[in-house]
Amino acid sequence: MVMPGGAAQLLEMLERSGESERGTTGVVPAPRRPQHRRERTAAGSDADVLVLPETGAARVAGPPAPQRLAGLVTEPVLEPVAGHLAGPFAAAPPSTTTAAATTTTTTTTTAVMRGQRIRVLALVAAAGLVAAAWSGVSTRLADRVPDGTTVAGVAIGGLDRTEAVTLLARMLEPRLTQPLEVRLDAPLAQGRTTAIDPAVADLRLDAAATVSRAIGPVGLPTTLWHQLSGRGAVEPVLRGDPADLASAVERAAVALDVPPTEGSISFASGAPVVVPPVEGAALDRDAAADLVRRAWLAGPGEAGGERPLALPATSAAPHVSADALAEALRTQAAPAVAGPLTVVVGERSVVLPPAAVVPALSVGADADGLRLHVDGAALAAAVATADPSTLTPAQDARLDTSGAVPVVVPAVPGAEPDPQALAASAAEALVASGDERTARVATRAVEPALTTEALTAMGITTLLGQVVSPLTADPARTQDVTVAARALDGAVLAQGQSLDVGARLGEPSAEAGWVPAVVVVDGRATSTLSAGTTQVASAVHAAAYAAGLQVDARTAPESWNPRDPVGLDAVVEPDAPLQLSEVAGPGAVLRVEVVDGALRVQVWGPAGRTVTLSTSPATDVRTAPQLSDPSPRCVPQPGMDGFTATVTRTITPQGGQPATDDLVTTYAPRAAITCTAAAVGGLPPSLD
């Protein structure tokens, strides 16, 4: 029979161990068997006789008839056989039957016991040989990794303990410093991946314990079997705080979890419709942590070796069931739009059709379940639209500069339906029917944003800065400038408060009063809603700079327009804000108006500081190029040289030291465009 290499080695070791034991103790001979024959006894009868080889004693094999003495049955009597007695029994008189039998029985028993002891000793000796051989083999293999052993794809079979520990540390420890790419094993999470941070997970390889696991405990049959047949893949031993690993998995869950889509009731079409909920998918935190620990070091082709590693998921149920939504639709949403709603504000009564109420409605979950919610502010706006007399807007305090000295015009409080009270009353009325579909609410006072006391406390008495910029003859452009001026007029800058000019202007729209106007861009006429905003921004910046306000953000136009103050112009665009603030005085007020065909910007504030401006001659002058354009769409454009201008400002507070700052602006040259096609009549458009 052909044996595996490991089995052959074991048998060879067993044989060597057995030879060693025999050399020390000697060979134990096997006991000889008793001889059986038939002979005639002294009484003249035939009997079967056993002759013991150790003593020569004879024993009657067949039992004689029992003898009765005083009612007792005696044991069978052994008689000596002539010529077969040895030792001290040879001199005994053969005529004494009982003594001979007793002697024969004793001798026979002693011989049998001696044979049994010899057999026991032989078995013990053999067991000792096997144990010694087993111990020797186990000890010799205690530091050897079984053939075929791998750990995370690293082969360590056949290496001794030290070599295996060194190899595992060198090959596997760097893997634990690399992020582990993972994904959520759920159809809803397709494409969602993230990486687990090794610094947070803080897993560490115990290479020594891993090798000990691969070798196995010394002396166990399974350990010897692995040494003979090979081991295969062994899971590495990783150390770390479970709380750290749980924290790393939780961070991954933030990126991997697919939250459920809560169902809702939509009023988008005017009629309430249930939008059903959709289950989500969530990372199974505990199972994921266990898999991450087992698979972080897994190599390609091994279980858990795929990247990104698929982590187990569980379903994430929505908080509100589809049945609950259907019930809310039947009992709340549908009745809410079943008819008009009457709103009584003070003495005024307003009837709102369902279409006017719907924008203020929604259905959401709270501690008591699904509820119909009413946006009080939106419903109040609907009431004010239907009947403006139900709402009185508050009026801020303002500065009247039409006379010789500025005058504070007092603020006026407003009145409006209480939004919270209106929402609560309407929520009850909307699920009622008939005359009960009436919401009653009182008005509340609305305080102005700028009170009379606040504006008066600023002590605004002095015109600090002013710019007057002529407008073009284009009425559309003048309209847009007027809309912008109204949006900025009256802006108040309290001390430390910033004014964002673009945010205050808002997005130009037809609803806000802006109209399309034509401007010239690179020799072409272009229609825009924001014509004139650069002129407005430039005038505001120049007046604020002259008044000593702080300029927090400003972007100059690409080239200079002679209409605007040199070195002090500005643009207002989404990515180019104009921001101003008052840091020195208690406050300032901005007045922006269109007066007598010109834009006038004034900055008013308290007296007490002097501001002077000086502009240096142009430097770094670059000549404007001359271009001819044969296109019928050509619009003539005057050229403008590029240059750099520096404006120096000196601010001297009352009783304080002057402070100086420079504002440097560099303009690019603007090409002069000459149109060679036939001229088209009409007003020439503005550059802005």
UniProtKB/TrEMBL annotation:
Disordered: region residues: 16-44
InterPro entries hit by this protein: Glycopeptide_resist_protein (IPR052913), Vancomycin_resist_VanW (IPR007391)
Source domain of life: Bacteria
Protein name per its UniProtKB record: Vancomycin resistance protein YoaR
Organism: Quadrisphaera granulorum
